[in-house]
Amino acid sequence: MAALGWLTPRRRSATARSVLAGEASAEAARKSSQELEQLGEATQPDEGTPETEFPVVGDDRAAAFFDLDNTVMQGAAIFHFGRGLYKRKFFQRRELVKFGWQQAWFRIAGVEDPEHMQDARDSALSIVKGHRVAELMSIGEEIYDEYMAERIWPGTRALAQAHLDAGQKVWLVTAAPVETATIIARRLGLTGALGTVAESVGGVYTGKLVGEPLHGPAKAEAVRALAAAEGLDLRRCAAYSDSHNDIPMLSLVGHPYAINPDTKLRKHARERDWRLRDYRTGRKAAKVGIPAAAGVGALAGGTAAAVALHRRRR
Asked: What was the pLDDT predicted at 109?
């Protein structure tokens, strides 16, 4: 694993490992998207979603890129995944407590802590090493139903649906494992997902990453690589995130949105007149071009952290 230095906000430029992670994620995302198209799986549009000037209907050179943690879903996908693996006895109680503490901190602070995220990824890699990719994908489907489905922000979901209704592709872009991200994307009826690519040989995880986690500059590299492969015009694309760590990705597109923004991203967005939306408190940003349907059900859940849940069950 790379040192923690790549996670710090001071480093904005892409490294060779960022480029490698981005390109690997883009390749995995396109492959999974093609498989979804072959299966013909798609979510029907929500009834009553109004037409808006943006996104532009029929603009097939535009697409939307959504961060996952705290943007599309309350909390962090990797922590929910960890809870599900614990339930299936993939690791011990002390590791559950660690996952629970990290998740509790994430929910309270609302931002990503580099050390916590790095620890979680190290733990996840060690846990899945030697397991088959197909096995983890199957388990991931169950974990989505158990811990993630009820944590999707309805407001952000409506924004994604507006792009789908306009005939545009919609991609998740996340530091979570690409397999987990792909499951979430499929369940939401999205096009596919860009995520951290864990190395596998013969369908078995090796416990290593391809490049580095898809975080910060690596996300921007993944979006850039996917846009080139798909023939997209980034000036016509939109990106959505809650974190200042995603400023490189948001700055790539012509339509950046700050969703449930942390303090640094809110300040940055206001200085540049980016669109703002906050579903944690019900506050609405008076910005043109945000679909009205995105205001539906914009209340944060009060789900307890994993460690508290475990203690109650004892």
From this structure: 53
- Packing angle of the helix pair 93-109, 114-128 (nearest 10 deg): 150
Q: Is the pTM of this model over 0.85?
A: no
Catalytic entry in 46, 59, 60, 69: 69
Which value, in Å, is the radius of gyration of the alpha carbons in the chain? 18
Residue 67 known to be catalytic: yes
What secondary structure does DSSP assign to 171-220, as a single string? EEEEEEEHHHHHHHHHHTT-SEEEEE-EEEETTEEEEEESSS-S-THHHH
What are the residues facing 200 on neighbouring strands?
A: 205
As beta bridge partners, residue 238 has 64, 255
pLDDT digits (tens, 9 = 90+) for 56-115: 999 999 999 999 999 999 988 988 888 888 888 887 666 656 555 555 555 555 455 556
Do residues 223 and 239 touch, judged by C-beta distance below 8 A? yes
Which of 59, 67, 273, 278 is catalytic? The answer is 67
pLDDT digits over 109-132, tens only? 545 555 655 665 666 677 788 999
CA gap 314, 307 in Å, rounded = 11
